[in-house]
Design a protein that fits this description.
Elements (H helix, E strand, L loop, with lengths): L19 E12 L2 E9 L9 E7 L4 E4 L16 E9 L2 E8 L10 E6 L7 E2 L12 E12 L2 E10 L3 E9 L6 E10 L13 E8 L6 E8 L7 E10 L2 E4 L3 E2 L7 E7 L5 E7 L5 H7 L1 E2 L1 E2 L3 E5 L5 E5 L7 E13 L3 E7 L2 E11 L1 E7 L7 E7 L4 E5 L13 E5 L6 E8 L2 E6 L4 E6 L8 E7 L4 E11 L3 E2 L12
Parallel strand pairs: 1-20, 4-36
Antiparallel strand pairs: 1-2, 2-3, 3-4, 5-6, 6-7, 7-8, 9-10, 10-11, 11-12, 13-14, 14-15, 15-16, 15-17, 18-19, 19-21, 19-22, 22-23, 24-35, 25-34, 26-31, 26-35, 27-28, 27-34, 28-29, 29-30, 31-32, 32-33
Length: about 475
């Protein structure tokens, strides 16, 4: 059954439950022929509280089956105040979920525990014990385990902050997923700038993820956490393992937009790696609460480290199956202060573009009949940047604005893939493998349309195609506990 949007801003081709709050993707694992995607979930409302793990599975990344809640807090237990973030592994006929046990009295120290499923993820049974009882000396923040197979055994990273100002991913190993030995920091750094715009690697590292490489460099991915309201981001260190440590070069942004955080990896068949992120709301909380939902997961992205050490992402190949009718095909050029109408698009579409700019030029998505509401995606050949500007993307003052940039070589054609789904836009710079994610909340009631535009003294060659984006297929849950009523 295809799930229709509850309101004009509800995405249809991005994974989330019918209602309530979600945040971090958790427990991503391929097991018994299915992709399993869990996520932080409040079954009782559209605010961050009552953290459980919701759960979907899919054979193909297109058709998804809601499963019963994977994890729920145990009254009086070590996770009484929330089952926070972690990951899962496939070990023979069982799935083992590792997660942070949250208690309000020590919110920054969340020890690691686990739960096991022997029925394909339909039920998980908590171990009832801490796998790592003590927090290493000097840690001021500690949470979010990530476990992976390493040789004949297993390794675990836990995100941390040290009192001396370093963020860190701490390393443990185990022969059996039961007994864990601390090996020290896998990587640790003082706060370091990344990507401009005041972003940095954070006071601490949340949700550490590791993409190892059989040949060449790998990537340590983490979410840069600060104990305040300053901007947060997802960062990668590209480098190589040396014993129990990871040596890497300068940090790079995993996503250049403001609305993707807590990225998580899934090791897929065939040696492919997939990445999901959490895209939070960029609107007033009261608006989300009134609509009854908040947060969405990004589309799954294929992620790899190129031979030159760059991190490359693209939408998972399976998402091509969501393309419907081609609604737009346009080629041509703009000259000077031109605005050329390319055609109409719906509120959910998948677009490819080859752009050849001279000066400042790009695409404009107009979402109101009078053109006063629009999202700009433009290339600045003079600065070598791609700019996504949402300052005029909503006439509702409760929506956030802002202009965001990522480096873009403009000495030749620039290839883009843009997925827009009601209130989320994911802009993939195919030329370099970078991505920028942001939320937008159009209010216009008329059909949307796309323009090619150039500034005075500039021009733009373009070839643009767009397809209708079909909804994901969400099956009816076999158990009402999959997404209980608030």
């Amino acid at each position: 059954m295809s799930t229709a949007p509850l309101d004009p801003h509800r995405p249809v081709a991005h994974l989330r439950p019918p209602r309530n709050w979600i945040n971090d993707p958790n427990g991503l694992v391929f097991h018994d022929g299915h992709y399993h995607v869990c996520y932080q979930y409040n079954p009782h409302g559209a605010t961050h509280a009552n953290m459980h793990w919701g759960h979907f599975r899919s054979p193909d990344l297109i058709s998804w089956e809601p499963l019963p809640l994977a994890l729920a807090p145990t009254p009086g237990g070590m996770d009484a105040d929330g089952c926070f973030s972690g990951n899962a592994v496939s070990d023979g006929d069982r799935m083992v979920a590792f997660y942070s046990a949250h208690r309000q009295e020590s919110p920054q120290h969340q020890p690691v525990t686990c739960a096991v499923s022997h029925d394909g993820g339909r039920t998980f049974h908590p171990s009832g014990r801490l796998l790592i009882p003590g927090v290493p000396e000097g840690c001021t923040m500690y949470r979010d385990p990530y476990v992976w197979r390493h040789g004949d055994g297993w390794r675990m990273l836990v995100g941390a902050a040290f009192a001396d100002g370093r963020g860190a991913a701490l390393l443990y190993d185990s022969p059996d997923l039961e007994t864990w030995t601390y090996r020290g920091p896998f990587a640790a750094r003082e706060k370091q700038g990344v990507g401009g715009a005041g972003l940095h690697t954070g006071e601490g590292w949340e949700c550490p993820q590791y993409l190892p490489a059989a040949d060449g460099p790998g990537a340590l991915i983490f979410s840069a956490w600060n104990d305040d309201d300053s901007p947060r981001c997802v960062v990668a260190l590209v480098g190589e393992e040396h014993g129990d440590g990871f040596e890497a070069g300068p940090p790079v942004l995993v996503d250049h937009g403001p609305d993707s955080y807590a990225s998580a990896l899934l090791r897929a068949p065939g040696g492919r790696w997939l990445l999901w992120g959490w895209s939070g709301e960029a609107r007033d909380e009261a608006w989300s609460v009134a609509d009854g939902w908040a947060g969405v997961l990004t589309v799954p992205r294929e992620i790899s480290v190129a031979g030159d050490g760059s991190l490359r992402q693209q939408p998972a190949a399976e998402l091509l199956a969501l393309r419907g009718e081609r609604t737009l095909h346009a080629t041509g050029q703009t000259h000077g202060a031109d605005a050329v109408v390319l055609g109409g698009v719906g509120p959910a579409f998948d677009l490819t573009a080859r752009l050849e700019p001279v000066g400042a030029a790009g695409l404009r998505l107009l979402t109101s009949p009078d053109g006063s509401e629009y999202l700009d995606i433009r290339l600045d050949a003079d600065t070598g940047e791609l700019v996504v500007d949402r300052d005029h993307a909503s006439l509702d003052p409760r929506a956030q604005g802002g202009s965001y940039r990522m480096p873009c070589p403009t000495d030749g054609p620039v290839d883009l893939r843009v997925i827009v789904d009601h209130s989320i836009a994911e802009v993939f710079l195919t030329t370099t493998g970078q991505v920028l994610t942001l939320r937008l909340y159009p209010t216009g009631q008329g059909p949307w349309r796309l323009e090619a535009r150039s500034m005075p003294g500039a021009h733009l060659g373009y070839a643009v195609d767009a397809w209708q984006l079909h909804p994901l297929v969400i099956k009816e849950p076999a158990d009402c506990a999959a997404h209980p009523e608030p």
